[in-house]
Amino acid sequence: MANNIHTQFHRFVSSGEKEDLLGQKGMVLWMYGLSGAGKSTIAAALERELHNEGRFVVILDGDNFRHGLNSDLGFSDEDRSENVRRVAEVAKMFASQGVIVVVGVITPKQALRELAKKVVGDSFVEIYIHASFETCASRDPKGLYAKVADGKIKQFTGKDSGFEEPDCPDLLINTEELEPSAAVKKIKTLLPGL
């Protein structure tokens, strides 16, 4: 089948031309961590601040993907891998158009983070949004931890399904210590020209 696919990227306006038009460098800020760690909150705050500064930003949120494009996937190891691969492919497409892409996906295993980085390429920035399982359970913004405690959810990351702490992310944000505004400030230091 690969012999029958002929990409057309060489005919399109280049990434560099689009970045010049937008006045920004396309990149993927891949935020990961436990459910309730603060990924979506920080992503929304970052998007708003960058938008107000005239930057074009797209958020790719894990729950939104699982509601739409990835609604056919469960939480097996294979499905988690495919979930990450699809999100990474979409992120890569946006970044190639000069867009700042903010991804918020749990991405619990190092192999999954490596997969995302391999798919996205050089524009990938790894940001670990850290909060302990206990802290996330006390926040429980979606009511998921209560369902886990009642035995209503299986294969929950951090409980039945493991979460591997990263060795060396590009940035570590500890939301037990930092407010969202401070997290946004730290993330913005990674963006060129801001």
Description of the molecule:
The protein has 194 residues and is of the alpha/beta class. The chain has one domain: P-loop containing nucleotide triphosphate hydrolases (Rossmann fold), CATH 3.40.50. It has 8 helices and 5 strands. It has helices at 15-22, 39-52, 62-67, 77-95, 110-120, 133-139, 144-149, 180-188; strands at 27-32, 57-61, 100-104, 124-130, 171-174. It has a 5-stranded parallel β-sheet with strand order 2-3-1-4-5, sandwiched between helices. Helix 2 crosses helix 8. It is globular. The N and C termini lie far apart (43 Å).
What does the secondary structure layout of this molecule look like, with pairings?
Layout: H1 15-22, E1 27-32, H2 39-52, E2 57-61, H3 62-67, H4 77-95, E3 100-104, H5 110-120, E4 124-130, H6 133-139, H7 144-149, E5 171-174, H8 180-188
Parallel strand pairs: 1-3, 1-4, 2-3, 4-5
Helix pairs in contact: 2-8, 4-5
Helix content: 40-55%
Tell me, what is the CATH class?
A: Alpha Beta
- Unreliably modeled segments: none
> What is the CATH architecture annotation?
3-Layer(aba) Sandwich
Major β-sheet strand ordering: 2-3-1-4-5
- The share of residues in extended strands comes to 5-15%
- Overall average pLDDT: 91
Keywords:
194 residues; alpha/beta; Rossmann fold
Short description:
The protein has eight helices and five strands, in the order αβαβααβαβααβα. The protein has 194 residues and is α/β, with parallel strands linked by helices. The chain has one domain (20-188): Rossmann fold (3-Layer(aba) Sandwich), CATH 3.40.50.300.
